[in-house]
Amino acid sequence: MHSPEVLLEDSDAVYDYYLRHQQNRWKALASYAVLARRFRPRVVFAAGAKARVRALVRSGRPVIYAINHLSTSDPYTVAATAWRSPLRSKIGRVRVLAKDELFLEPEQRRKVDMMGGIPVFRGKDHGIRAVNAAGQRMMDVCAQRLAAGDHLAIFPEGTCNDVDPAQVQAVGSGIGHIAFRAAKLDAPPALVAIAMSYGPQPDPAVEPTVEQVRSASFYFRAPVLELPQRPADIARFVKDELQHAVDGAVANY
Question: Which ranges carry the Phospholipid/glycerol acyltransferase domain (predicted)?
Fold first, then answer.
């Protein structure tokens, strides 16, 4: 299938492509393994959460992973964490929302596609009105991928937290709309909140050091199997769950 340029003006073709796109699972597994050896994140679970996450993954139910966002290194440390957790068996079947600019340079796009990326045209980059139709289509595609058995990883804060890494920033309603639409397709997703900490950061606007990234702490909350009904309520619930996960990641750094 032809791979279109990831441009807002061609968003219909872009999302037609990513509705069906499937990365090479063996390459993804190899890449995640390399990242796990490079970064070696310390992975901690809430009480009883590891067994419950493992059981959820084996159940075949679609899952949304809500993850906090601290730096440009996050996709790599998250991938390393997936390898070192019960999520390893789902590598190659997890879609990851990523800003559209990551798809522009060919080599970067190859890496993002390999990791299961789905592009997001953000209002902060293109204007709220300009991205409305594309955003609606993106949420539909995500819901359809969940209904087809994929999992979905989202940084629901939408951008790197350069305010306070210990406090989850505003969560938009997009994650709620995706979960709501998946439920309408008879595929209600479970939620797992995962948080990372790179340790104390005197200036959150400065990227963490290589040493901090390599010693990242990750914390898994127990899965939530029943979400609120309305998108806005889901988003608020996600923020609360993610804050609990951030508290755990910070405490275990």
Answer: 63-199
Per-residue pLDDT of the chain (253 residues; tens, 9 = 90+): 688 999 999 999 999 999 999 999 999 999 999 999 999 999 999 999 999 999 999 999 999 999 999 999 999 999 999 999 999 999 999 999 999 999 999 999 999 999 999 999 999 999 999 999 999 999 999 999 999 999 999 999 999 999 999 999 999 999 999 999 999 999 999 999 999 999 998 898 999 999 999 989 999 999 999 999 999 999 999 999 999 999 999 999 9
pTM beyond cutoff 0.90: yes
Q: What does the block give as tokens for 178?
A: 């995706």
Pairing of strands 151-154, 94-99: parallel
Residue at 99 is within a domain: yes
At residue 208, φ and ψ (nearest 5 deg) are: -60, 155
Q: Which amino acid is at 225?
A: L
Residue 20 domain-assigned? yes
- How many domains is the chain partitioned into structurally? 1
Residue 2 belongs to some domain of the structure: no
CATH number for the domain harbouring residue 230: 3.40.1130.10
CA distances from 46 to 1, 82, 234 (A): 42, 16, 21
Domain ranges, residue 36: 8-251
- CB-neighbour burial class of residue 158 (10 A; exposed 0-12, middle 13-18, buried 19+): buried
In a domain, 3, yes or no: no
Report DSSP state, residue 71: S
Helix or strand (DSSP H, E) at 117: strand 117-120
Supply the DSSP symbol for 170. -
